[in-house]
Design a protein that fits this description.
Elements lengths: L2 E15 L2 E14 L5 E14 L4 E17 L2 E13 L5 E17 L2 E14 L5 E15 L2 E15 L6 E14 L6
Antiparallel strand pairs: 1-2, 2-3, 3-4, 4-5, 5-6, 6-7, 7-8, 8-9, 9-10
Length: 189
């Protein structure tokens, strides 16, 4: 597994968030292997300024992202991504922790049909000791049943923790569940 890209970067930009204008600095590095290989991996570390909406002021953030792609067959791919970030106040004290992990799998039945699954889990602890969790599941089936004519069936659901009763107990609750069917047909005039 040979390295394909090694990137070290620095940037400075003028950012506008709500009524706040600030100069943001960012720097970091990323290392990737060739994405066309059966197994590809990548890592990125980033240190940057951002606008902290919880504190209504600019802050700093550091993050680590790990990515991998597996292709066990030419018509099947699996992508695993995980990111961990910490937000810091202006004194450098950690005031938030965020973790997101996702899985995307795509299977091509034929050149005209596929099934894609996306799942994501996240945990965050912003500005407090409370931990919040959220989950997403998405399925998409696509079929080109005639040239430039498609059928798509999508299913999405999201779950998040919420306060239960009058106490501080939290439990996962379904927030949203949607099924969408889309059919297109190309008419030749």
């Amino acid at each position: 597994m040979l390295l394909d890209d090694i990137i070290v970067y620095y940037y400075r930009s003028r950012e506008v968030e709500l009524t706040e204008v600030f100069i943001a600095d960012g720097y970091g590095f990323s290392i990737d292997t060739n994405s066309t290989n059966p197994i590809a991996v990548g890592i990125e570390m980033d240190f940057s300024d951002y606008y902290n909406f919880g504190r209504q002021q600019a802050g700093k953030q550091r993050s680590l992202t790990l990515e991998s792609t597996l292709r066990p067959q030419s018509n099947f791919s699996i992508e695993l991504d995980s990111s961990y970030a910490q937000s810091l106040d202006l004194k450098g004290t950690i005031d938030g922790r965020f973790f997101v992990s996702s899985l995307r799998a795509t299977y091509l039945f034929t050149r005209e049909s596929f099934l894609r699954m996306f799942a994501q889990a996240g945990r965050e602890r912003p500005l407090s000791t409370e931990i919040h969790e959220h989950y997403l599941l998405s399925l998409l089936f696509g079929w080109e049943y005639s040239p430039k004519s498609h059928l798509f069936v999508a299913y999405n659901e999201t779950w998040a923790d919420a306060l239960v009763g009058t106490g501080l107990n939290r439990e996962l609750q379904l927030e949203n569940r949607v099924i969408v069917v889309k059919v297109t047909y190309l008419y030749n005039l």
